Amino acid sequence: MITLIAAVADNLALGKNNDLIWHLPNDFKRFKAITSGHYIIMGRKTFESFPKPLPNRTHVIITRQKNYHPEGCIVVDSIEKAIEACPKTETIFVIGGGEIYNLAMPFADQLDITRVHHHFEADTFFPEINPKKWQLSESEKHLKDEKHLYDYSFETYLKIK
């Protein structure tokens, strides 16, 4: 199964200047719980936005740079090769950025979205979720609080077969 996992604003914003625009601790906890122990596919810029590789995950990085070989990571030059590098029996998570989400969307079986209920100025966006191809199967709303500046919802979409 291939799952795209992302925190996405109401206007589909993902980030700006290779960084997140918001800070939602519960989203980070959910991301860690869902992706730990699995293969995660990302673009080079997303990988480089981390201070270090994420623990307890196998990193598959897509880049066109020929001499890019971070230690302990699988490096490929296409979404197809990234998927091939992962075991077929595994749930694979695509974690960004925007270009990688666009490339991976046709291969995805599920979308795990943290919907941030706000509009942000951004330079990276998530692809449009076509309601003819994706069905919302779960949604759990959370209101802003002292640790979360925005209302948000955890949403799961399943591909319509």
Automatic annotation (TrEMBL):
Transmembrane segments: none
Domain DHFR: 1-159
Protein's recorded name: Dihydrofolate reductase
EC number: 1.5.1.3
Catalytic activity of the protein: (6S)-5,6,7,8-tetrahydrofolate + NADP(+) = 7,8-dihydrofolate + NADPH + H(+)
Family note: Belongs to the dihydrofolate reductase family.
Classification via PANTHER family: DIHYDROFOLATE REDUCTASE (PTHR48069)
MF terms (GO), sorted A to Z: dihydrofolate reductase activity
Keyword hit for Flavoprotein: no
Annotated metabolic or biological route of this protein: Cofactor biosynthesis; tetrahydrofolate biosynthesis; 5,6,7,8-tetrahydrofolate from 7,8-dihydrofolate: step 1/1
Pfam assignment, any one: DHFR_1
Keyword Oxidoreductase: yes
Keyword set, alphabetical order: NADP, One-carbon metabolism, Oxidoreductase
Origin: domain of life: Bacteria
Entry-linked InterPro entries: DHFR, DHFR-like_dom_sf, DHFR_dom
Top EC group: oxidoreductase
Function: Key enzyme in folate metabolism. Catalyzes an essential reaction for de novo glycine and purine synthesis, and for DNA precursor synthesis.
